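Troubleshooting: if your tokenizer reports a length mismatch, compare your output against this known-good record of 508 residues.
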Amino acid sequence: MLAIRGLSKTFTGQMALDHVDFDLRPGEVHALVGQNGSGKSTLIKVLAGYHQPDRGASALVAGAPLDLGNSTAAADAGLRFVHQDLGLAPTLSALDNLALGRGYHRGKLGTISWRREARAGRQTLAELGFDFNPKTPIYRLTASQRTGVAIARALEDWSDKVRVLVLDEPTASLPAAEVRRLFEVIRRVRDRGVAIVYVSHRFAEVFEIADRITVLRDGERVATMAAAELTERSLTELTIGRELDALAPVHPHEPQTDEGTVFSVRGLRGEVLESLDLDIGAGEIVGIAGVTGSGREEVTELVCGGRSREGEVRLEGRVIPAERPDVCFRSGMAFVPADRLSKAALPSMRIRENLTICNLDPAYGPLGLSKSRERAEVRAWLDKLDVVPRRSEAQLLELSGGNQQKVMMARAMRLNPKLLVLDEPTQGVDVGAKASIHRIVRDAVEAGAAALVASTESEELLALCDRIVVLVDGKPCATYRYGDLSADELTQVTMGSGDLEERTKPSG
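Known-good structure output:
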């Protein structure tokens, strides 16, 4: 269905892809994996026509030549894309964003039929397991709901001409229940003979959905194999290029709760969250688990002033007023949101500027602001988190999504916060970088900070947190300590299953 040969792409002296060959068969799901900066997103953006390839590359779609680097040619050839940054218009409604793909439904007089639009939009989103008002602006939706709109838009204009669907990290912000719904949709599309490219850092998902796997490393293709021929361990070693022993999981230490409570909330309420009481001690990491709609996606923004709330929030005994992110910041909170591009990053600015903008004090010398001091600190952080490329003066948008996330993490960590608030901290980050980020979070709490982590990944919460609060239907239903239950069991609890009551006992 798709054959790419000799694909290379160079950015200002940096080779992102080096003579990559890639092929895709009708009716298969072909996973494309690799660390951040390995070239996955670059390959997809060349295929979509966003980037121009270097000379010498060629491609065929169903035997017909494809003009690589031409977006119109890609669309005419039957290629559809859901990119990692989703490509949605944030101030428009979900309905409007769906119509950007296939056009508006019109009545006999040529005017837009909003009734048909609403009906079609609800049906398309419902097929993916989403139930929200499609007239809602994109910026008011949760991360997983925005992902649903982007996928729905790609799937809504299917015709006999559509041949290839490319999904770049489609499940990065989806909890397990919604991932399963998405996989059902992918399998239905695959069964119609459509070829699917599936990009993900979640290897368990890759093995569940993929027929074949191609591994990229440092811009080169290092392997293409049937999924059945690989294990998670062997795939990880192919991806990172070394033995897995160096990535041993980080286990939580004993929290330093004897140093007192750093952070507390009483009666915290939002649109979905009904009431949450929580204390976090110094040196402790507390996780928030729950499916979309449970209230999990609200907690971090409620705490950090990003949403209107009720209830009391205290940091080191000081009451933090609602909807005052500036007061939260000055009081010692550092926040990394799930949607980094719209809520954290300055995409058109330099990596250096994004990393240091919250506090320039360390860069000042006797003669004022010292760019050399600033660059030295930035280089140290880029090395510490293995950001690729390590060019402090490059634009943030030149980085892959995972490397952008590392810069956001570095920005928060360098503030030495009293409370570190993380929403999906390793979303779109490869296995090696995930281990590095977890270690750095541990370093922060071992120095006396507290941390609050909301995540859709059960494995992440279990590996990182000392305690996990599970939200169901806007209410906390249980709290588990490290070692109380497995990832599968935690997933079941978040879905409201009562099967675990006899096997696991809530810790509080």
